[in-house]
Amino acid sequence: MQKAELVFIPSSGVGHLVSMVEIAKLLVERDHRLSITVLIINLPNFDSKITATYTGSLNRIKFIHLPTHTSDPKTFFTSIIESQKHRVKEAITQHVTSLPDTPRLAGFVLDIFCTSMIDVANDFGVPSYIYFVSGAAFLGFMFHAQFLHDELKKPISDLKDSDTELVVPTLANPIHAKFLPSAVLNTDWVVSLYELTRRFRTVNGIMVNTFTELESYAVNALSDSDIPPLYPVGPMLNLDGNINDTDKKAEIVEWLDDQPPSSVVFLCFGSMGCFDEDQLKEIACALEQCRHRFLWSLRKDKDKFVIPSDYENLTDVLPEGFLDRTVGVGKVIGWAPQVAVLGHPAIGGFVSHCGWNSTLESLWFGVPIATWPMFAEQQFNAFQLVRELGLAVEIKMDYRKGLNTDDKAVIVTAEEIERGIKCLMEYDTDIRNRVKEMSVMSRKALMDGGSSFSSLGRFITDVMDNINP
């Protein structure tokens, strides 16, 4: 019986790495013929603690860390990944193809930022697949933006600061330019994104971390297009969370245990989410005024390419007396065990940056979202959740702050924040009911016979059918 080895190459972002490892775990669990080698390209300041969670032995999954690269992360799209090609080739030759009695190399599964590794797969004569960590609608947007640029000579970056609404094939409604990601509106960054998307068109298939029931309009639109075969396989979630910081986690869960069901609003903005002191004061004011119980994950603002850290002294950045006035009502923390928090019955709402992994986690646990995007494709996700799917309320959908914008973020006022939290926690029962229904569907999608279960089965069949004799 033919056994097969897949090589996974994630990018260094925590959300990318975690999601790719979860699909790797599911693949080897589904088919005993498969084994996987994960090549981790480390970057300075991005080698997160989460990496350690996955460097132990997993069943038929091995991890190989390539040397840390010292280039500027701003050049990640091009020079860093390009410079790793020879190391990837050496690692595969040493650990996969040259060892006796090893499974046959069956293909590469690549993160969206690692598409230049298609060239290495071609050198080995094996297929390439993309694992797309965001949603199907955003994948369709990327294809459409590249089409507009290459075929119609209409760069998407021309829409910056315009009032244009863009018709995207994977969205049922036109999307205003202000909700497009900062990277595609930046003439320097978008060139790299066009090149990535061109390479998407050359692969054997694209796995997407979504499920058909969530994004049926987008999945159907992509399935009818001329792109490679699409495999919606999500939601891929690390429900075990981070094995580190168990003491902090226990303290947070103990506090939640004392709160009534669905009474707490959770504020958390992802591994890179942080604000300046002026914005923190507006958030604090809103939390006092709205009088809802809250759990607030507060991180220290650093250089945009350095993962934020916890504050040593919260009183240095919060309004005077805030912690005393909110004793018993709220809790301010640093790092948050997000999965454990969202899965706790005390949580009634989630003020989120709308990262795709966080979105899927929130839907999995049936927790409605109030949108506050920051960077990457988060503005697009916020638009989709509020306007397309009716699964979230808005605090802001066009807020921008982060890796690919030099614009100074506007201040979101306490009144705007309070209004969004009250809508989330008090008023919109229709959204809450839809989120609960989507929670059930997300779980069914992964069960035997579910849409994602069947889609992953089709992917495995394609991999095994394409093994060279």
Q: What keyword list fits this structure?
A:
18 helices; 469 residues; alpha/beta; 6-stranded parallel β-sheet; 7-stranded parallel β-sheet; 17 strands
Verbal overview:
The longest helix has 18 residues, at 429-446. Helix 6 packs across helix 8 (187-200) and helix 11 crosses helix 16 (414-427). Strands 3-2-1-4-5-8-9 form a seven-stranded parallel sheet, with helices on both faces. Strands 14-11-10-15-16-17 form a six-stranded parallel sheet, sandwiched between helices. It has a two-stranded antiparallel ribbon with strand order 6-7. It has 469 residues and is α/β, with parallel strands linked by helices. 41% of the residues lie in helices and 16% in strands. The model has no long low-confidence stretch (mean pLDDT 89). The chain has 18 helices and 17 strands. Keywords: Glycosyltransferase, Transferase. Its EC number is 2.4.1.-. Pfam families: UDPGT. InterPro entries: UDP-glycosyltransf_plant, UDP_glucos_trans, UDP_glycos_trans_CS.
Summarize the structure.
Pfam families: UDPGT. The chain has 469 residues and is of the alpha/beta class.
Outline the secondary-structure elements:
Layout: E1 4-9, H1 14-30, E2 34-41, H2 50-53, E3 61-66, H3 76-83, H4 85-97, E4 104-111, H5 118-124, E5 128-132, H6 136-150, E6 165-166, E7 175-176, H7 182-185, H8 187-200, E8 205-208, H9 216-223, E9 230-232, H10 246-257, E10 264-268, H11 277-290, E11 293-297, E12 299-300, E13 309-310, H12 322-325, E14 330-333, H13 338-342, E15 347-352, H14 356-364, E16 369-371, H15 378-388, E17 392-394, H16 414-427, H17 429-446, H18 451-465
Parallel strand pairs: 1-2, 1-4, 2-3, 4-5, 5-8, 8-9, 10-11, 10-15, 11-14, 15-16, 16-17
Antiparallel strand pairs: 6-7, 12-13
Helix pairs in contact: 6-8, 11-16
